[in-house]
Amino acid sequence: MSVHLKQDKPDTRNVLDTMAQGVIGADLPRPEGLIKVTGTAIYAAEYRADGMLEGVLVTAPVVRGEIASINEASVLGMPGVRAVISDKRMTGRPAQGTAGEAPFQPAREVCYWGQPVALVVAETFEQARDAAKRLALDWHGTGDAPLDPEAAETEKDESTRKGDLAHAMAEAAHTVDVTITTEGHASAAMEPHAALAQWDGRTLTVHASLQMLKYNRAELADSLKLEEEQVRLVSPYVGGGFGSKLGISQEVVAASLAAMQLGRPVRVVMSRQQVFQTIMRRSETRQRIRLAADAEGRLTGFGHEALVSNLPGEDFAEPVLQSSQFLYGGDNRLLKLDLARIHRMTAGSVRAPGEAVGVQTVEQAMDILAEKLGMDPIALRLRNLPDAHPAKGTPFSSRKLAECLEEGAKAFGWEPRPRAPRHTREGEWWIGTGVASAARVHAVVEAKARVTLRPDRTALVETDMTDIGTGTYTILGQIAGEMLGLMPDDIDVRLGDTDFPPGSGSGGSWGAPSCGSAVFLACEGLRKDIARRLDIGTDDLTLKDGLARWDGGETALADILGGEPLDCIGHFEPGSSIEDATVSSFGAFFAEVAVNRWTGETRVRRMTGAFGIGRVLSARTARSQCLGGMTWCIGNALTESLMFDPVDGHLANCDLAEYHVPVHRDVPALEVLLLEERDAAASPIQAKGVGELGLCGGAGAIANAIYDACGARVFAYPMTPDRVIAAMPDI
Amino acid sequence: MRPFDYQRAERFEHAAQLVGEDGTRLLAGGTNLIDLMKLQVETPQTLVDIGRLSLGTIAEEGDGLRIGALATNTATAVDPRVRRDYPVLARAILAGATQQLRNKATTAGNLCQRTRCYNFTNIDQPCNKREPGSGCGAIKGIARLHAVLGTSDQCIATYPGDMAVALAALDARVEISGERRSRSVRLRDFHRLPGDTPWRDNVLDAGEVITAVTLPAPVGGIQLYRKVRERSSYAFALVSVAAVIGIEENRFTRADLAFGGLAHKPWHDPRLAELLVGSEPSLALFDKAADLLLEDARGYGENDFKIPLARRTLAAVLCEATGVEP
Questions:
Q1: Relative to the CA of A417, which of A499, A683, A727, B288 has its CA 20 to 30 Å away?
Q2: What is the ipTM of this complex?
């Protein structure tokens, strides 16, 4: 049995609200939480296989060139060394998210410093690592390697031009014209990239750390010139992805090639340095924001132009303008994204690509405009929420932005403005607060899931969907439990195996609405079949606690099944419901910071985030997602920065000691409000994406709080002590 | 990591004998050495584990305190005598690394920790400290963490630690034992400037082993350690200041100051105490002290900010110690 839905219309039935079990949205623990915190959940690098060999990647110490020769003899005599793999199917770059085809090959053409060019395979990891460092490479240069995005050639993409922004700026009562930079980010997942490949002569099985198995399987098959059916990927637990595992990376292809060549299982685990040097980066950005407003603070013009970068040959350009298209009004609009071609490692999706750096800059500009107008920054935002998408005219499917600003302000204890900076000092520390809007476009993709009702009053959910720490196991159990009248403890959710029906994968915050909808559809199919067996209408059927009830009757689910399992595959496809409307998650951030008057050090003292994400599927994991996002906002605002050497282009800070994500002490009490919302166009379960929203804009609230505290308008992220001091008026 | 031999020293004499041999390194806490071996920055042929030697005692000696070479950073920081009489030392240690690292790191190992220069830790980059004569990748490269005082055209690396900065302010001594002789060196003289031999971090000769750090009699006063960094833990100092300040009748009676993050060694400039002692604290005086301190400071682009940051941090510490309001 299967149920297919291509969602061309909003689903206003709100079916999940009519169910009886009462577990949807509840604050329930993660089913896999215990095995994760006790170390018994097995991650990719922890698998063992009989006769397993270890592979270590060899990386190029040049930014651009061609490997002329690899002197295999230089290491083949070393103890334990079994092979040097430099097959032309090796890949030099990771695949972009949802590519579904082989990433850029071949490996011998070096395009960035640290690019993997070979794999040394040995009996032990130590032998392989030693030999990998000793492998002799000959290479020659192949021309200039532009390293500076400001000086490189650019490809221009003007996405929106409406009216005449320059004219609006000239005529406006108040204007803001600021240029703000952000530096590159690493995804910085805790679990490094790892793969164990096993080849039986026909079928390749790879245990790996991946976010999107359906696409990854196609990418790997294409890389190896195998049929997809010959490739099985297993990835039940993933220790963080943040975009870095959307597409397959070099270790997966290298381990597979080695296993196929040597006929033994091969494991390849990237070192932390290799993860930093070869996996996707978020591009640095330079953004110019222009705002034109009338005397009452109504925007008449809105401009957002950005410069980002990528390697030659890559299509991905950090989509900085994504939410700027519709967050605020203004009839005269100019949105423009330029892409510079430079030789840093591949730029791709890193946690909330686009909005994670594109909203905070707009939010800084709005704060400056509010100050010029003598308005409260919340009032300014409320005045400029467009009735519909300013360029396309499509209505918003749901938007709780005003409510988030208002409810969040109440919870945070927002003190209305205007007020001059440096109003509060505690010893050496200036205290200030700031606000910013949050926005993240909603996306859903095709997804399948199989749900099987079993005669023992349990159900099985199977999909190749992943749980990258986000809560997939939890929410799919809660959806199935609600629909089938079972407690989530009785739902066995199995993920991360391409032997299961292909799900959506985790990325773009689309996992919950896409795979959740597939599970929902499968359950609808099961409910329909049960109703048919009982000879009642589906709407007359109530499932609760393992019992089926209807007007005048009640029977155990097990009796209806007659001892046989009953399964259904749910198949969800996005349709025009999300094209006919502007579908996005919204929210608001409030931050309180302390800025040291002497040293410019900034510490976040508290943050509140209020979010509208459609239906909340699991109160606990949705909140955790928002906490994680807000934590990244602190890193984005204050510490995170990839540092590339200006001379040879190598990445200098390539471990977690030198790439500064926030430590526990940097993260204060974070408050999360989830506003009740249903979005009928977003998905048949009325849920929108949540994973990334918490990152989108919050750094702007911190920047605005820094200004409120000490009077420094800093126009470069991260706002490190030196930058704050440079922007700070004298003590 | 290269294959290596591992030996455990049961007696101090054994360790001292082995450490004189080429390619031998002493292993104590291993929090720095093992990392560098994984990166192949360090490629010892033999590791001599001295972890079982009885060099971990913290004991009173004369009027002062003797901290054994193998006393862990945690043990030193929580020692009641250290907390009472040398609070700047406890504060400096607790400002460094993480609890897990401090539980393993030792006094002598911490003094000998290597620079965190990104070029030093990357064997595919030039570095005169790691590979004499290969050049310096930092001078025109990424130099955010680097030195502004006492640099040379060979090397602009910093000494990364916190503990030694406090020890410099306290005028501690390093007890060193060698095959032929034992000697005692002021901590202020223990680390070197890079000059033309940047591969030498300190004055230890081949075959010499640190046995202890000794602290002089307690001097009381106000003891502060201020470490500036963008995140609040697990980051090396952009600038740090250790201060032991005495004030009587609104005049400085003591002003022992040492600085981290500025140079290849904990920076101590005796002229600062000469200027400050006997004078009334004031912002103008603090500014003068900063002028002296930074007279010869030189930035390398990315680290230019350290010069004004050092000035401000010094003023912050002196204001906190003296109650002068900015």
A1: A727
A2: 0.97
